[in-house]
């Protein structure tokens, strides 16, 4: 899954047991008339199944200190190297077998201080109540359903962009002719569908053809979430052939 070969010819991915466990929910959203209806059903379903939401039970509100997929997205939006970011990277590691390469600093070897810090943050007990891994499993499967049904039916890739100031977080595997290069991205990384937004985040713009099966979340998936401002996509990493432009 980390290889260029997979990214060129992606295969369908499902997290074992998720759709079977929540078959009634997926059957229900198949019958809705709009993506908004499906998204609202998803938010209410997450509240009911995992006990999320504010004191009034509203889908878009999260009680203080209550771990949820929304709180993880909020933490990621502030800083992908936060404790919430470590939990998300840990979920990718657990479900897809892709180890992170960066968390606050390069993760070069097991047992290093950097790796120990990542392990401590991803396993923090305050984030692992309310079955946080199962919440992310369902979020991923809902995202994949929405992409296939409403956003890019019949397409396997999306063109996405990322702005960076340097390549300290990435391993450049090889440079090809012109602006093309092969880089190894962290196991979870943010992209945007808007090139102008990517320009605000760095002097270099990375353009990639991202398999839709490697998308965990994107801005238009839900009406209530904390990542609305940057047309953001959360993308599972690995080796990507990218085009690099310097502003």
Layout of strands and helices, then pairs:
Layout: H1 4-8, H2 18-21, H3 23-30, H4 35-50, H5 69-78, H6 83-96, E1 102-103, E2 105-106, H7 113-122, H8 132-151, E3 157-164, E4 171-175, E5 180-192, H9 195-199, E6 204-211, E7 215-218, E8 232-246
Antiparallel strand pairs: 1-2, 3-6, 4-5, 5-8, 6-8, 7-8
Helix pairs in contact: 4-8, 5-6, 6-7
General description of the model:
- This protein has 247 residues and is α+β, with helices and mostly antiparallel strands.
- It has one domain (4-246).
- The chain has helices at residues 4-8, 18-21, 23-30, 35-50, 69-78, 83-96, 113-122, 132-151, 195-199; strands at 102-103, 105-106, 157-164, 171-175, 180-192, 204-211, 215-218, 232-246.
- The strands form 2 sheets. Strands 3, 4, 5, 6, 7 and 8 form a 6-stranded antiparallel beta sheet that branches. It has a two-stranded antiparallel sheet with strand order 1-2.
- A hairpin with a 1-residue loop joins strand 1 and strand 2.
- The relative contact order is 0.18.
Tell me the major beta sheet.
6 strands, antiparallel
Percent of sequence in beta strands: 15-25%
- The count of β-strands is 8
pLDDT < 50 runs, ≥5 residues: none
Task: Fill in the keyword field for this structure.
single chain; 247 residues; alpha+beta; 6-stranded antiparallel sheet; two-stranded antiparallel ribbon; 37% helix
Task: State the gist of this model.
The protein is α+β, with helices and mostly antiparallel strands and 247 residues long. Helices cover 37% and strands 23% of the residues. α4 runs antiparallel to α8, α5 packs across α6 (83-96) and α6 (83-96) packs across α7 (113-122).
């Amino acid at each position: 899954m980390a290889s260029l070969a997979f990214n060129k010819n992606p295969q369908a991915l499902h997290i074992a047991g998720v759709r079977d466990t929540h078959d009634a929910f997926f059957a229900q959203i198949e019958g809705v008339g709009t993506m908004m209806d499906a998204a609202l059903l998803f938010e209410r379903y997450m509240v009911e199944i995992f006990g999320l939401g504010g004191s009034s039970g509203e889908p878009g509100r999260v009680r203080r200190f209550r771990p949820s997929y929304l709180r993880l997205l909020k933490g990621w939006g502030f800083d992908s190297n936060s404790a919430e970011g470590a939990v998300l990277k840990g979920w990718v590691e657990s479900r897809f077998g892709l180890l992170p390469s960066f968390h606050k600093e390069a993760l070069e070897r097991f047992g290093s201080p950097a790796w120990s810090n990542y392990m401590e943050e991803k396993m923090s007990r305050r984030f692992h109540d309310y079955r946080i891994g199962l919440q992310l499993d369902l979020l991923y499967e809902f995202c994949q359903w929405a992409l296939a049904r409403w956003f890019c039916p019949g397409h396997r890739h999306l063109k996405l962009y990322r702005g960076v100031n340097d390549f300290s977080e990435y391993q450049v595997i090889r440079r090809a002719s012109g602006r093309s290069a092969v880089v190894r991205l962290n196991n979870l990384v943010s992209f945007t569908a808007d090139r102008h937004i990517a320009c605000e985040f760095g002097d270099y713009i990375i353009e990639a053809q991202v398999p839709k099966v490697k998308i965990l979340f994107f801005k238009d998936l839900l009406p209530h979430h904390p990542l609305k401002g940057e047309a953001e996509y959360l993308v599972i990493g690995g080796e990507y052939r990218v085009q690099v432009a310097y502003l």
